[in-house]
Amino acid sequence: MKKIVTLLLFFTALLVNAQEKKNVQKTQIVEASCGQCQFGMKSGGCDLAVRIDGKSYFVEGTKIDEHGDAHAKDGFCEVIRKAEVVGEIKNNRFVGSYFKLLPMEQ
User: pTM to 2 decimals?
Assistant: First the structure.
């Protein structure tokens, strides 16, 4: 009986551990900019977007104005920047849980 209980606990621990690993999202470096001004996307105004593997997605979880003046010389409407992000693509949008704008390359 003790062996059965031990085996059940062992397999339960394995299943829980496997499920937790599924939810882990990787940090990735992407291109970030204004979807309309730099990526040619259709929308009603200037909105933050990321480009991953050559495809552009509008961003949920942060806004374009949270990262400085979008129309400044280094802003999203003027240049494409690099950003470190964590998130996933849902319904053709990038839903981010982490977004860090990286310094411009010299």
Answer: 0.75
Interstrand relation of 55-60 and 93-101 (parallel, antiparallel or unpaired): parallel
* 102: number of Cβ within 10 Å: 12
The domain made up of 25-101 has a fold known as OB fold (Dihydrolipoamide Acetyltransferase, E2P) (2.40.50)
**CA dihedral over 27, 29, 30, 33, signed as positive or negative:** positive
Give CA angle at 105 (99, 106), nearest 5°.
Answer: 155
79 three-class SS: coil
Geometric angle at alpha carbon 103, from 81 and 78, rounded to 5°: 35
Give the start-to-end residue ranges of the domains of the chain: 25-101
Instruction: Dump pLDDT digits (tens) for 16-54.
Output: 655 555 557 899 999 999 999 999 999 889 999 999 999
